Structure prediction request, 332 residues.
Amino acid sequence: MGWKGILGFDYGVVQGPLGPDVSGPELVAAVANAGAIGILRAPDWEAPDHLRELIRETRALTDKQFGVGIVLSFPHKENLKAVLDEKVAVLQVSWGDFPKELVSEAHRAAVKVIHQVGCIEDANKAKCAGVDAIVVQGHEAGGHVLGQDGLISLLPRVVDLVSDCDIPVIAAGGIVDARGYVAALVLGARGVCLGTRFLATLESFAHPHYKQKLIESDKTEFTNIFGRSRWPGAPQRVLQTPFFNEWRHLPEHENEENQPVIGLSVIHGVPKEVRRFAGTVPNPTTTGNVECMAMYAGEGVGLIKEILPAGEVVKSLVEEAQHIIQHKFSHD
Prediction:
């Protein structure tokens, strides 16, 4: 059964690209060294030289393959060129169309394409474009959420859709442990993609306060109060922090543009002011009122009890999944 590898990697475990820079070289290399698919997050603006530097920093920390995630809603032509020039093993794309011509261009550079989708229509587009794998993101996922469907209903539909071709389907949304991994396999997935679980690791480039909140919290909410101006039409799942609970009914006409600056962050090497309701999560460089910043998390956050090394997360997912399959499903 499918705890085995996909796309040439040892294991079917993917670390989702965590924005804006939370999945940096340390996290991606740690995941890659454990045999899973680590994915860097490209900047949300054109910064090909910086992206090349991130790729090289990651290569200095691992001799294993890894990927880069690009959000298609933002300017990305130069960043995409950098990924293909560097011949990174995997390009993960989301939030937009990635037609056959672009998939073919990636393939000519020996780069495999994973398209993340949130509905059956987008899965069909990805299939027609000839991608190498499809990530199906359920509504349970943390961060910016593509669709309205729950994973347990959407995943088998996409599996059926691609049953006539050999495109592995990867499940995402609320999965944090081996039980979720095995459940996804039973539904027909060949791998799983985890975001929040890898956010809560030693190597993730999230602010310590944010990591601590992941351990303490068990409630999330689907909302759109963060980053309305920067990224309209991209609702998100966040932790129910005291700040969020106070402002959850923010009027629709309000956004971050006219809000006070509550902190400063260096993001992908660029100093940036963080306004109230900006969709920017705090990283270790962040100063100011961290408690009032966006903190994304998926519905599985209540299962996360400690900050672990990323390699240990991969190892326990794989070993415990094998154990469940052998002991729960192998006996009549």
